[in-house]
What does this fold into?
Amino acid sequence: MVPDTLARGDDRALSVGGISIPVLAEQYGTPLYLLDVETIVNRAKTWMAQVSPHGTVYYAGKAFLCTAMVELMDRLGVGVDVVSGGELATALGAGMSPQRLLFHGNVKTAAELAAAVSAPGLRVVVDSLEELRALSAAAVRCPDNGPIAVLIRVTPGIEPDTHDYIKTGHDGSKFGFPIGEVAHAAVAEALASPHIALAGYHAHIGSQVLDPAPMAETARRLMRFAVEVWQQQGFWPQMVDVGGGVGVAYQPGADAPDIAQVVQAVVAVVAEATPPSLDRPRVAFEPGRSIVADSGLTVYRVEVVKQTPGGPTYCAVDGGMGDNIRPALYGAPYTADVAGPPRPGRATVTLAGRYCETGDLIIRDAVLPPVAVGDLVVVYTTGAYTHSMASHYNRVPRPPVVAVWRGEAHLWVRGETFADVRRQDVPLAWAL
Ligand code: LLP
It folds into this structure.
């Protein structure tokens, strides 16, 4: 829920990575995304320790991606799952080898597929027949790189308990090939193309999943499918990828799945379902949130404290849905605290954003020490799906991302200026 290095110092101010948050806010301004590198490293190492003997960890870049994050994952031996040409360019530009990348997405444009086939060793997770055919055609144009390695994305018909918007593996999902006949046909077509090297299967059932059971069930269905394909088409996968989705706690006392337990359950299913005469497929996981969410916090400055007659007391800050769309989009819960020395007592306030929408409320009914204008408030667990989903709504510049580690702070992404906000604008062309 919070960074592993979070502490309140002797001065009662919060610190992270050994640096006082009020000092960081003074230096970099607010709003400010902070990432605690120690926490990212700890989470990534936990995943690696569990998965490495059995397969591969690909960090899901959609949770948070920038050049330094790719470099960090690379140094920790973690691959990256990218989902667009922009994420692919970020990963390759940061020096990650294409062999350590997986390219996802239910839509990949011709330009994106061309980029994929020109990166030797990159694996593509194919989501539709259109894509399979376009990829095969694109691979013909890059003969030197040989056939392109592919996983077929299967929709396993599993509906985990999470927000509807982030379920992906249920019947009727827009993602993947429905398990059964449709997926069998996709495998047959992939096997028939000399430009495609089928490596295995993938499924991802959703995100912020708190129960480990559906992931093991995903593995069970993928393996059942693999055995059927083996019997009917004679193909056995080298890799079975069960996606990401392991949830985190956003509130004190909330439970999060144990990573070791999730991995062991999946590995056991894969081992058990592999026929004795065949090699056990390598198992891949694609954790995003569970690597980066806890490491992040967002620092805001309180700009307005407004009591409404008979309604909430709003504590309005200098950020909101532009830097964190999750409360407005999913009703996502968060936990806040004051960064400076807490005043005595507790008060219930609604932490409101600065954007021009009534729905821009970061936390309803947060119980905090009394706050006043000018105070710094932190919102925890904002490392995943905040910066990566940030917008320019209301033409508010996006905040910087600063990483802290062992008493040192470094910018990972510069904050935008008004010039950045206007950069792509083109003046009116008509004299009228
Ligand atoms: N693999 C695939 C194919 C995915 O689609 C996703 C997430 C992941 C891995 C990583 O899942 P994670 O471990 O981070 O849960 N914007 C939403 C989350 C959308 C997730 C989309 N796919 C949110 O803010 O909650």
Q: What stands out?
A: Residues 60, 62-63, 81, 104, 166, 168, 204, 207-208, 243-246, 286-290, 326, 330, 384-385 surround LLP (CB under 6 Å). The chain has a mean pLDDT of 96. The two ends are 56 Å apart (CA to CA). The longest strand covers residues 296-307.
